[in-house]
Specification:
Order of helices and strands: HEEEEEEEEEHEEEEH
Strand content: 15-25%
Distance between the termini: 20 Å
Helix content: 25-40%
Number of helices: 3
Strand order of the largest sheet: 1-2-11-3-4-13
Number of strands: 13
Shape: elongated
């Protein structure tokens, strides 16, 4: 009787270990496909995002809906496909964008951009007049308008370049923008659909770095997967599923013991 009970306990322990390992691997893969950690390197998204902050990028939601105006997105940089950039979407496919000095208009509606610091306002690029955003592409700008290389410089971002939406700042603690990035959809409430069906002034789409560039020296912001420079990121991605599965099994085991005792 004791041998049978001991075998049952060992079998149950072995089964729980295997279940924990399988569930941990599955949860890790799901989390890895849904989100990714990135490290910000640069200041062209100030004051919304700061240099050396760590952000979590949601890679999942754009499978269910298209990117929207105001979204902060990480994407493969059209001027340099070896780098990832992070910018804010201002124009959607079919929109007509005009930029005169620091005034940004979308579909003949001038934007009042609360996320742009007046001290960082500026435009080192040529004016843009009624530029149409091609289908499958997005017009992006850095919040630090006087120190950002963006769609004013190298054109629009193809949708297939977009990795995901920056959703959460999780490190370092104590920054003024720690936590979820605030929604700015109200900035674009009055922007309607474009009435301009066709135009010869299409936003260019560039996929490769040109041989020579006269604007590449602007203060650029890049992002890198943070687990390349911070081994704790990978550890945390494994730790969270382990903790969840471990707590789940502990509750199940406690419930099973209570049933045996009763």
């Amino acid at each position: 009787m004791d041998l049978e009970f001991d075998f049952e306990k060992r079998y149950r322990l072995f089964r729980e270990i295997i279940e924990t390992l399988v569930l941990t691997v599955l949860m890790f893969l799901v989390i890895r496909l849904a989100v990714q950690n990135f490290n910000i390197d640069g200041m062209s998204m100030e004051p919304s995002l700061h240099n050396q902050e760590l952000v979590i990028v949601d890679k999942w939601s754009y499978f269910f809906h298209a990117p929207g105006r105001g979204d902060v997105v990480v994407f493969v940089a059209p001027p340099n496909p070896t780098q990832d950039y992070i910018k804010r979407i201002v124009g959607l496919p079919g929109d007509v964008v005009t930029i005169q000095d620091t005034r940004v208009s979308v579909n003949n509606r001038q934007l009042t951009e609360s996320y742009v610091d007046p001290r960082r306002q500026g435009n080192p690029y040529a004016p843009i007049n009624n530029m149409v955003i091609p289908q499958g592409a997005y017009f992006v700008l850095g919040d630090n308008r006087n120190g950002s290389s963006d769609s004013r410089d190298w054109g629009c971002v193809p949708q297939q370049n977009i990795i995901g939406r920056a959703a959460l700042v999780y490190w370092p603690l104590g920054q003024d923008n720690f936590g979820f990035l605030p929604g700015v959809s109200s900035v674009y409430n009055n922007v309607g659909q474009s009435t301009q069906a066709t135009s010869n002034n299409l936003c260019p789409i560039r996929h490769v770095q040109p041989a020579a560039s006269t604007t590449s020296q602007h203060n650029q912001i890049t992002v890198t997967p943070s687990d390349q420079s911070n081994p704790l990121s990978t550890a945390s991605m494994l730790l969270l599923p382990c903790l969840y599965v471990g707590l789940t099994h502990r509750r199940r085991r406690h419930h099973h013991v209570q049933e045996e005792c009763s």
